[in-house]
Model the fold of this input.
Amino acid sequence: MIKKTKSYSQYLSYLLIFLGVGWIIKLLFAEGSKVLSQFIPRSGAWLALALTVGTLASFHLAFIFQRLLEVHTGKKISLIDASRLLFVSQIIRHLPGRFWGVLYQVNQLKKHTPPHVTLRTNLDFVLLSLAFNLFISLAIFIFYGFNLHVAFILAIVGLIILAMSLRLDWIEATLSFLKRGLPTKIVRRLPDITKKFYSWKTISLLCLLFLSSWIFYLLSWLFLQKALEGFEEAKIFLLCASYSIAWIIGFLSIIVPGGLGVREASFVLIAHALASPSALAFLALFLRVWLILIDLILFLLFSTINVFQSRTKRQNASPKFDMRGFQILDPKDRSGIKSRYITMLHEKALMRYLPTGDPSRLAIDVGCGYGRLSRVIAQKRWKVVGIDPDENLLKYARNHFPDVEYRQGGFPNLPLTEGSVDLILLQNVLRVLLLMNHLNHIRGFGRFLSPKGLLVIVENIRERHRNYFSESQMIEMITAEGFELQKRIPIRAGRWWMIYLIRYGLIPQNWLDRIAEYELNKRAKIQKMPHWQYLNVMFIFKKNLYEKN
Done:
């Protein structure tokens, strides 16, 4: 059996951790009781606010990592997936070390992304984070030591250097230069380094995200100052800059997992003039736990979302697009929860506002898709025929909702006798015809309705947008076909903040019924159409007069 031996780097790592942590513990014991009494939080609310704002600061890193992944892979990466990759690896780096965090990402992406692309993405992410933290920290030091103008100039120069390094890909140039010094045998095994030219739009976005992250980070330190007893008079932003420099030093001590001990010792040395060594030692350990807690919160959040999304994927998923390529479900709604919620809203709206029929009266659902609403009309005691031009969708509908009759067809020639229909439902059909430039297909469709028959339209309405009907356009178009408006009921708002929580599975599914009832009641009160989003509106028209053109 081969006996494994520890490398010199491992022994050196243990030594640095022992020296750093040991010195911090010694400082704490020197004035332990005094320091601990100073740092009893005087306000749990400020402490909670600091933690929340600090978590938001770290969450900005997920947006940055997502954008870098998209640049290097050339693929669309969801924020949920990028966040999970980042924060799981952040947790891993605290114990086994940052190498294992990167290895986790390589393993997760290996099916679609070569390992060297993942490594290059991480390299860009790390170098940009280090450079930006260094520039901002130095700007804060200069602001306190010199004046605002010098600090501002340094920050601007730092941003320009970062922007140019991204635009010209100095990272690739540096790697290529270092590659030249390696033996030929090793160079042959290394993958080719592809030059990545970041667009100015991407560069601007990355800089704004880094700046925004730092604004939240500084705010979290300000709230910490209000939460803890020991630093009321301290220059808190100088402490923040000192800790950031210490974080960089700890990060560069690659052999130490998470810079444990090195970061804390560096912080005490850098900030020695701002507070007592014992107080700084306590703050260093407090901040270590605080940052680990932030990483843990984000790790648990996105890991939970990922597990929840995986468990809620339906076994028999409905078709996402019809044969013409038009969207049936939201592609971002990977678990199908948002689609189920919208279907629930439409079902409730039809049950609430659709008049009750009888089995002798015929209702047709034109553009029925896979029969989501045809079965609801049947529950209102109508005889129902679902009509759609896509036979694949109709096969799905027949298998899942067999109580309804289905026929293949569509406008302008429906597979029915003129005057034989008492109710027509058009759910999200007219906008499809608008986008296909086939609105002329609906001319004269009123001939299929019996006298005083009903037309129910459920459609997304938005003012002043070329891809949507405005409310006035919709009403004018239908009244021109010989109909009179009876009711207008808004059902759903396209950009309601709750719909995003529903889409990503952040709302318990047993709440959806109550949320749907609440939204129906809330939207029904809307009189004026908003300009910045669409509303899903139900129109009920009554056939008043039909003249054959």
Remarks:
- The radius of gyration is 31 Å.
